[in-house]
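User: quick one
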Amino acid sequence: MVSERHAIADRIDREHKDIRRSIGQLELNILQRFSEKTFPDWRLTMILDMRDFQSQLLKHFDVEEEGGFLQSVLSALPHAEYQVHALRDEHQEMIMRLNRILDKLRSMQAPSAEIQQELHQDLHGLLRELIQHEEQEHILLQETFYRDIGGPA
Ligand SMILES: [Fe+2]
Ligand SMILES: [Fe+2]
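Assistant: Done. Structure below.
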């Protein structure tokens, strides 16, 4: 049982690292310079990369919500119920935020340094929210899974 639970904790930790890497890469790509000629390629690549990231996030949220992590937190830490609900709400909120970024990107029909800068700021805002979200999860993860084996809470 303990090892099963740790498999979930390990998976979530690993996915958090992967997500940070992806968003770091998106931030770099979104700042890439483009000319009139290279703009369509840049735009399409960004749309596809954002789609991949959206799918990566949705799957990660499914793992957390359906894979036993949040349920284990609730059973181990009943006082964290409000926090767990807030984390679920944040999942939805972050996906909507990402959809808005994708919409903005799709509506960018011509090269615009201004919109490019906005997109970068939007993405950076999402990154900050994600980092805070995952830090909270990391704390809950420690408290939930390390208690069982008598390790540090
Ligand atoms: Fe989460
Ligand atoms: Fe997470």
